[in-house]
Amino acid sequence: MSKSLQAIRGMNDILPEQTPLWRYFEGTVARLLDNYGYKQIRMPIVEFTELFKRSIGEVTDIVEKEMYTFEDRNGDSLTLRPEGTAACVRAVLEHGLTGAGQPQKLWYIGPMFRHERPQKGRYRQFHQIGLEVFNIDGPDIDAELIVLTWRLWGLLGIRDAVKLELNSLGTSESRGRYKVALVEYLSAHLDKLDEDSQRRLKTNPLRVLDTKNADTQAVLVNAPKMADYLDDESRIHFEGLKARLEAAGIPFVINTKLVRGLDYYSKTVFEWVTDKLGAQGTVCAGGRYDGLVEQMGGKPTTGVGFAMGIERLILLLETLEQVPEEISRQVDVYLCAFGEAAELAALALSEKVRDQLPNLRLQVNAGAGSFKSQFKKADKSGALYALILGDDELARQVIGFKPLRGQGEQQNIAFDALAAHLATCVVQG
Predict the structure, then answer these.
(1) Which helix (H) or strand (E) element contains residue 249?
(2) Sheet holding 303-309, edge to edge
(3) pLDDT single digits (tens) 48-85
(4) What pTM, to 2 d.p., does this model score?
(5) How many CB atoms lie within 10 A of CB 367?
(6) How far apart are CA 133 and CA 112, in angstroms?
(7) In sequence order, which residues have a C-beta less than 8 Å from that of residue 86 and are 6 or more positions away?
(8) How many CB atoms lie within 10 A of CB 23?
(9) Residues 165, 270 contacting (CB under 8 angstroms)
(10) Is residue 277 within a helix (H) or strand (E), and if so which, with residue range?
(11) Which of 77, 131, 307, 428 is deepest in the core (most CB within 10 A)?
(12) Are 371 and 338 within 8 A, CB to CB?
């Protein structure tokens, strides 16, 4: 017997009962970003592999172990995008969007791909919403990115469950001086480092700060601190960011071990973390990458951005029971029609109602059926009300109106009064 077809491990279907929550979340974010003046950009899922090697860094875990890379028929090495910033920068350069120092405030949404060990909140195909801002170099835009996420958490009802962590990585020069000091310190304690940290010490020493190994964390307690190596420009920038967050009333903590996993970050880095999801605690993260555009062949251009994981935030909404009740209901009114003449009238009447109430979620029964079976489908749909149209109602030009979720008796409503009645009961109520 042939093996049954299944989705690839770590690449999940989002089923019809799940999509209303996804649409609610995505719609909430999109409206917020419109209000802040961000414009959407859409990039391909597949890019040349070299793009990610040049931007993310060849000695990062993502490039070394996690990318889905393959050769196409032309022999080109292609990669399913593991993150969105590099692709966005490529698009900005290719289309000249930042020419003459033009500021750009962009956002995108879509799937990303990393070959990781699947677990709750971490998948091989996952979805992100990302923001990228170019040609604005002050701490004011760093603060805006954080402020708008704080507003989003408020809209979603999850502010009490997330915490903001901040750090500054300085410029590439100051970070280089810090790396020298860090490597010197860690080399003196090499026997106490875990195997992965010993490897990173030779390839990407800042990532040692991000270790989860308890013994290595103990060694890091007395390690040199990045703050002691910051240049004046980075220090002033960081102080400006903190002052703006304090003015906006946004609480934060300084995490000197926060380095992020990508080579292109400089100055500001931040993460929104939660302790409600177990090991997968980061729900939104980003920072400044002032050298990335130039590194990828463009003119010197400042950049800052972040990405939020949709799966983790959906999981957090469910964990905290912050799913609005109304989004689980996809139908407001279910129209049951009995007999061919009633079915024809129901089609015409439902379209007239939709003309007058374009936001009404009205489902007309399809596939005929008995009174009992149609009412069973009406109840299963989650509708608040059922409309009943048979030969008797059709002869009197009325339609039965029956509450399904609460108190109230069935009543008859004239055809020409139906839209107004539904507006009172459903659209406005």
Answers:
(1) none
(2) 39-40, 104-113, 125-134, 303-309, 282-288, 266-273, 163-168, 253-254
(3) 999 998 887 766 667 777 899 999 999 999 999 999 99
(4) 0.88
(5) 7
(6) 20
(7) 47, 51, 52, 54, 55, 56, 292, 296
(8) 12
(9) yes
(10) none
(11) 131
(12) yes
